[in-house]
Design goal:
hydrolase activity, acting on carbon-nitrogen (but not peptide) bonds, in linear amides, nine-stranded mixed β-sheet, alpha+beta, Glutamine Phosphoribosylpyrophosphate, subunit 1, domain 1, Ntn_hydrolases_N, N(4)-(Beta-N-acetylglucosaminyl)-L-asparaginase, globular
Protein backbone atom coordinates (compact mmCIF):
# COMPACT_ATOMS: atom_id res chain seq x y z
CA UNK A 1 0.00 0.00 0.00
CA UNK A 2 1.15 3.53 -0.75
CA UNK A 3 -0.46 6.97 -0.59
CA UNK A 4 0.08 10.71 -0.51
CA UNK A 5 -2.24 13.51 0.62
CA UNK A 6 -1.75 17.26 0.40
CA UNK A 7 -3.37 20.57 1.25
CA UNK A 8 -4.96 22.61 -1.54
CA UNK A 9 -5.61 22.13 -5.25
CA UNK A 10 -2.14 23.51 -6.03
CA UNK A 11 -0.59 20.21 -4.94
CA UNK A 12 -2.26 17.87 -7.43
CA UNK A 13 0.42 18.07 -10.12
CA UNK A 14 3.10 17.45 -7.50
CA UNK A 15 1.39 14.43 -5.99
CA UNK A 16 0.84 13.09 -9.50
CA UNK A 17 4.64 13.12 -9.97
CA UNK A 18 5.09 11.58 -6.54
CA UNK A 19 2.60 8.80 -7.30
CA UNK A 20 4.84 7.53 -10.12
CA UNK A 21 7.75 7.28 -7.65
CA UNK A 22 5.58 5.46 -5.11
CA UNK A 23 4.18 3.05 -7.69
CA UNK A 24 7.73 1.98 -8.51
CA UNK A 25 8.48 1.26 -4.84
CA UNK A 26 10.33 4.56 -4.46
CA UNK A 27 11.17 6.24 -1.16
CA UNK A 28 8.58 8.38 0.67
CA UNK A 29 11.24 11.04 1.22
CA UNK A 30 12.01 11.34 -2.48
CA UNK A 31 8.31 11.32 -3.35
CA UNK A 32 7.27 14.06 -0.94
CA UNK A 33 10.25 16.28 -1.81
CA UNK A 34 9.43 15.94 -5.52
CA UNK A 35 5.79 16.81 -4.87
CA UNK A 36 6.52 19.90 -2.79
CA UNK A 37 9.18 21.17 -5.18
CA UNK A 38 6.59 21.12 -7.99
CA UNK A 39 4.49 23.57 -5.95
CA UNK A 40 7.49 25.70 -4.95
CA UNK A 41 8.57 26.08 -8.59
CA UNK A 42 5.20 27.16 -10.05
CA UNK A 43 5.14 30.98 -10.18
CA UNK A 44 1.36 31.41 -10.20
CA UNK A 45 0.88 30.02 -6.68
CA UNK A 46 1.30 33.06 -4.49
CA UNK A 47 1.66 31.41 -1.09
CA UNK A 48 4.56 29.00 -1.71
CA UNK A 49 8.05 29.30 -3.18
CA UNK A 50 8.74 31.21 -6.38
CA UNK A 51 5.94 33.73 -6.73
CA UNK A 52 5.16 33.69 -3.02
CA UNK A 53 3.90 37.00 -1.69
CA UNK A 54 6.36 39.17 0.25
CA UNK A 55 6.50 40.53 3.78
CA UNK A 56 5.79 44.19 4.60
CA UNK A 57 9.29 45.14 3.40
CA UNK A 58 8.68 43.45 0.02
CA UNK A 59 10.99 40.53 0.77
CA UNK A 60 9.98 36.92 0.18
CA UNK A 61 10.78 34.96 3.34
CA UNK A 62 10.12 31.23 3.12
CA UNK A 63 9.50 28.53 5.72
CA UNK A 64 9.71 24.76 5.12
CA UNK A 65 10.04 21.52 7.03
CA UNK A 66 10.61 17.81 6.51
CA UNK A 67 10.16 14.84 8.86
CA UNK A 68 11.11 11.17 8.50
CA UNK A 69 8.58 8.95 10.26
CA UNK A 70 10.99 6.02 10.61
CA UNK A 71 13.69 7.88 12.54
CA UNK A 72 11.63 10.90 13.71
CA UNK A 73 14.36 13.08 12.19
CA UNK A 74 13.30 16.68 11.58
CA UNK A 75 14.74 19.47 9.45
CA UNK A 76 13.34 22.98 9.03
CA UNK A 77 14.19 26.43 7.75
CA UNK A 78 12.42 29.67 8.56
CA UNK A 79 12.55 33.19 7.13
CA UNK A 80 15.01 32.06 4.45
CA UNK A 81 15.46 34.30 1.40
CA UNK A 82 16.71 33.80 -2.14
CA UNK A 83 16.79 29.99 -2.33
CA UNK A 84 14.65 28.08 -4.80
CA UNK A 85 13.54 24.98 -2.87
CA UNK A 86 13.45 25.40 0.90
CA UNK A 87 11.93 21.93 1.35
CA UNK A 88 15.13 20.38 -0.03
CA UNK A 89 17.20 22.40 2.43
CA UNK A 90 14.93 21.24 5.26
CA UNK A 91 15.34 17.61 4.20
CA UNK A 92 19.12 18.02 4.13
CA UNK A 93 19.02 19.46 7.67
CA UNK A 94 17.06 16.43 8.86
CA UNK A 95 20.20 14.35 8.28
CA UNK A 96 22.21 16.41 10.79
CA UNK A 97 22.55 15.24 14.40
CA UNK A 98 22.12 18.81 15.69
CA UNK A 99 21.34 22.21 14.12
CA UNK A 100 18.16 20.81 12.59
CA UNK A 101 16.26 24.10 12.51
CA UNK A 102 17.96 27.14 10.99
CA UNK A 103 16.54 30.61 10.44
CA UNK A 104 17.30 33.66 8.32
CA UNK A 105 20.95 34.32 7.57
CA UNK A 106 22.06 31.08 9.24
CA UNK A 107 19.79 29.03 7.00
CA UNK A 108 21.02 30.91 3.95
CA UNK A 109 24.68 30.35 4.82
CA UNK A 110 24.05 26.63 5.28
CA UNK A 111 22.16 26.39 1.98
CA UNK A 112 24.92 28.22 0.12
CA UNK A 113 27.63 26.02 1.64
CA UNK A 114 25.67 22.89 0.67
CA UNK A 115 25.33 24.05 -2.94
CA UNK A 116 21.59 24.73 -3.11
CA UNK A 117 20.32 26.93 -5.93
CA UNK A 118 20.23 30.65 -5.26
CA UNK A 119 17.27 32.42 -6.86
CA UNK A 120 15.51 35.76 -6.57
CA UNK A 121 12.11 34.56 -5.39
CA UNK A 122 10.29 37.91 -5.80
CA UNK A 123 8.41 37.81 -9.11
CA UNK A 124 6.93 40.74 -11.03
CA UNK A 125 3.44 39.43 -10.23
CA UNK A 126 4.24 39.41 -6.52
CA UNK A 127 5.47 43.02 -6.78
CA UNK A 128 2.15 44.04 -8.34
CA UNK A 129 0.21 42.23 -5.59
CA UNK A 130 2.34 44.07 -3.02
CA UNK A 131 1.88 47.54 -4.51
CA UNK A 132 -1.86 46.98 -4.93
CA UNK A 133 -2.19 45.87 -1.31
CA UNK A 134 -0.25 48.89 -0.03
CA UNK A 135 -2.67 51.12 -1.93
CA UNK A 136 -5.72 49.21 -0.67
CA UNK A 137 -4.58 49.45 2.94
CA UNK A 138 -3.99 53.18 2.57
CA UNK A 139 -7.27 53.95 0.81
CA UNK A 140 -9.72 51.42 2.28
CA UNK A 141 -8.32 50.82 5.76
CA UNK A 142 -8.41 47.05 5.25
CA UNK A 143 -6.14 44.65 7.09
CA UNK A 144 -2.94 43.94 5.16
CA UNK A 145 -2.78 40.21 5.95
CA UNK A 146 -4.13 37.70 3.48
CA UNK A 147 -3.01 34.41 2.00
CA UNK A 148 -1.61 31.69 4.20
CA UNK A 149 -2.09 28.63 2.00
CA UNK A 150 0.74 26.37 3.13
CA UNK A 151 1.36 23.28 1.07
CA UNK A 152 1.56 20.42 3.54
CA UNK A 153 1.78 16.71 2.75
CA UNK A 154 1.89 13.26 4.29
CA UNK A 155 3.30 10.32 2.33
CA UNK A 156 3.41 6.53 2.74
CA UNK A 157 5.59 4.27 0.58
CA UNK A 158 5.37 0.54 -0.09
CA UNK A 159 8.06 -0.21 2.46
CA UNK A 160 5.91 1.34 5.21
CA UNK A 161 8.02 4.48 5.57
CA UNK A 162 6.08 7.70 6.14
CA UNK A 163 7.15 11.32 5.72
CA UNK A 164 5.60 14.74 6.19
CA UNK A 165 6.69 18.08 4.75
CA UNK A 166 5.56 21.69 4.41
CA UNK A 167 6.48 24.81 2.45
CA UNK A 168 5.09 28.34 2.55
CA UNK A 169 5.80 32.03 2.09
CA UNK A 170 3.57 32.69 5.09
CA UNK A 171 1.24 35.62 5.63
CA UNK A 172 1.24 38.27 2.91
CA UNK A 173 2.60 41.54 4.34
CA UNK A 174 3.82 39.81 7.51
CA UNK A 175 6.40 41.41 9.77
CA UNK A 176 9.99 40.72 8.76
CA UNK A 177 11.10 37.53 10.50
CA UNK A 178 7.58 36.29 11.28
CA UNK A 179 7.34 32.51 11.47
CA UNK A 180 4.08 30.55 11.56
CA UNK A 181 3.31 26.92 12.29
CA UNK A 182 4.69 25.41 9.08
CA UNK A 183 8.29 24.75 10.22
CA UNK A 184 7.27 23.95 13.82
CA UNK A 185 7.18 20.22 14.59
CA UNK A 186 3.88 19.12 16.09
CA UNK A 187 2.05 22.18 14.83
CA UNK A 188 2.55 22.43 11.08
CA UNK A 189 3.50 18.78 10.64
CA UNK A 190 4.19 15.51 12.42
CA UNK A 191 4.68 11.90 11.32
CA UNK A 192 5.48 8.55 12.91
CA UNK A 193 5.65 5.55 10.58
CA UNK A 194 4.25 3.30 13.28
CA UNK A 195 1.06 5.39 13.34
CA UNK A 196 0.66 8.02 10.60
CA UNK A 197 1.13 11.71 9.92
CA UNK A 198 -0.66 15.04 9.70
CA UNK A 199 -0.05 18.50 8.26
CA UNK A 200 -1.73 21.86 8.70
CA UNK A 201 -2.61 24.99 6.76
CA UNK A 202 -4.32 28.14 7.92
CA UNK A 203 -3.48 30.81 10.47
CA UNK A 204 -0.23 29.64 12.01
CA UNK A 205 -0.62 31.69 15.17
CA UNK A 206 -3.80 29.76 15.99
CA UNK A 207 -2.72 26.34 14.70
CA UNK A 208 0.29 26.49 17.04
CA UNK A 209 -2.00 27.03 20.02
CA UNK A 210 -3.19 23.42 19.71
CA UNK A 211 -0.01 21.58 18.58
CA UNK A 212 -2.62 20.18 16.26
CA UNK A 213 -0.63 17.95 13.90
CA UNK A 214 0.82 16.05 16.85
CA UNK A 215 -2.62 15.85 18.42
CA UNK A 216 -4.04 14.14 15.33
CA UNK A 217 -1.20 11.61 15.27
CA UNK A 218 -1.77 10.98 19.00
CA UNK A 219 -5.47 10.33 18.38
CA UNK A 220 -4.63 7.95 15.53
CA UNK A 221 -2.22 6.11 17.84
CA UNK A 222 -5.18 5.51 20.16
CA UNK A 223 -6.93 3.74 17.29
CA UNK A 224 -8.93 6.58 15.80
CA UNK A 225 -9.45 6.69 12.00
CA UNK A 226 -7.69 9.69 10.38
CA UNK A 227 -11.03 11.31 9.49
CA UNK A 228 -12.33 11.08 13.05
CA UNK A 229 -8.98 12.26 14.45
CA UNK A 230 -8.92 15.31 12.15
CA UNK A 231 -12.50 16.25 12.96
CA UNK A 232 -12.00 15.89 16.70
CA UNK A 233 -8.79 17.92 16.77
CA UNK A 234 -10.07 20.71 14.52
CA UNK A 235 -13.46 21.01 16.20
CA UNK A 236 -11.96 21.02 19.69
CA UNK A 237 -9.34 23.66 18.88
CA UNK A 238 -11.89 25.80 17.03
CA UNK A 239 -14.23 25.62 20.05
CA UNK A 240 -11.46 26.29 22.56
CA UNK A 241 -10.17 29.33 20.70
CA UNK A 242 -13.64 30.81 20.35
CA UNK A 243 -14.39 30.14 24.01
CA UNK A 244 -11.12 31.64 25.26
CA UNK A 245 -10.49 34.37 22.68
CA UNK A 246 -13.80 34.98 20.92
CA UNK A 247 -12.47 33.99 17.51
CA UNK A 248 -10.65 31.19 15.73
CA UNK A 249 -8.48 31.63 12.65
CA UNK A 250 -8.48 29.27 9.67
CA UNK A 251 -7.70 25.68 10.68
CA UNK A 252 -7.41 22.98 8.01
CA UNK A 253 -5.71 19.61 8.51
CA UNK A 254 -4.89 16.56 6.41
CA UNK A 255 -3.81 13.16 7.75
CA UNK A 256 -2.93 9.65 6.63
CA UNK A 257 -2.26 6.56 8.72
CA UNK A 258 0.17 3.73 8.03
CA UNK A 259 -2.59 1.75 6.29
CA UNK A 260 -3.05 4.47 3.66
CA UNK A 261 -6.37 5.60 5.14
CA UNK A 262 -6.80 9.36 5.12
CA UNK A 263 -8.79 12.15 6.71
CA UNK A 264 -9.36 15.89 6.34
CA UNK A 265 -11.05 18.51 8.50
CA UNK A 266 -11.47 22.28 8.32
CA UNK A 267 -13.32 25.15 9.95
CA UNK A 268 -13.56 27.22 6.73
CA UNK A 269 -15.57 27.21 3.53
CA UNK A 270 -13.74 26.32 0.33
CA UNK A 271 -10.86 24.19 1.57
CA UNK A 272 -9.45 21.93 -1.13
CA UNK A 273 -7.05 19.01 -0.90
CA UNK A 274 -5.49 16.43 -3.19
CA UNK A 275 -4.90 12.74 -2.62
CA UNK A 276 -3.53 9.72 -4.47
CA UNK A 277 -3.29 6.12 -3.30
CA UNK A 278 -2.63 2.67 -4.73
CA UNK A 279 -6.37 2.42 -5.37
CA UNK A 280 -7.11 6.04 -6.32
CA UNK A 281 -5.75 8.23 -9.11
CA UNK A 282 -4.68 11.76 -8.08
CA UNK A 283 -7.88 13.67 -7.35
CA UNK A 284 -8.94 17.03 -5.90
CA UNK A 285 -11.67 17.28 -3.27
CA UNK A 286 -13.52 20.21 -1.74
CA UNK A 287 -14.54 19.88 1.88
CA UNK A 288 -16.82 21.72 4.26
CA UNK A 289 -17.63 21.37 7.94
CA UNK A 290 -21.30 20.74 8.65
CA UNK A 291 -22.16 20.44 12.34
CA UNK A 292 -18.75 19.07 13.19
CA UNK A 293 -18.63 16.51 10.35
CA UNK A 294 -16.59 17.22 7.24
CA UNK A 295 -18.12 16.35 3.88
CA UNK A 296 -15.79 15.81 0.92
CA UNK A 297 -16.91 16.27 -2.68
CA UNK A 298 -14.90 15.71 -5.84
CA UNK A 299 -14.06 19.07 -7.42
CA UNK A 300 -15.90 19.63 -10.69
CA UNK A 301 -14.04 20.36 -13.90
CA UNK A 302 -15.67 23.78 -13.87
CA UNK A 303 -14.23 24.49 -10.43
CA UNK A 304 -10.79 23.24 -11.48
CA UNK A 305 -10.80 25.38 -14.64
CA UNK A 306 -11.87 28.47 -12.69
CA UNK A 307 -9.14 27.85 -10.10
CA UNK A 308 -6.35 27.96 -12.67
CA UNK A 309 -7.93 30.77 -14.67
CA UNK A 310 -8.08 33.11 -11.68
CA UNK A 311 -4.52 32.34 -10.59
CA UNK A 312 -3.02 32.84 -14.04
CA UNK A 313 -5.08 35.89 -15.02
CA UNK A 314 -3.07 38.97 -16.05
CA UNK A 315 -2.48 41.45 -13.24
CA UNK A 316 -2.67 45.23 -13.41
CA UNK A 317 -1.60 47.83 -10.90
CA UNK A 318 -4.57 49.61 -9.37
Amino acid sequence: MWGIIATWRMAVEGISEASHILQEKGDAGDAIETAIKAVEDFPYYKSVGYGGLPNEEMEVELDAAYMDGNTLSIGAVAAIKDFANPVSIARRLSKEKVNNILVGEGAEKFAHKEGFERKNMLTDRAKIHYRNRVKEVREQEIKPYAGHDTVGMVCLDQQGKMTSATSTSGLFMKKKGRVGDSPIAGSGFYVDSSVGGASATGLGEDLMKGCISYEIVRLMAEGMHPQAACEKAVNQLDHRLKERRGHAGDLSLIAMNNKGEWGVATNIEGFSFAVATENQEPIVYLTKNKDGKCIHEVASQEWLDHYMKTRMAPLEEK
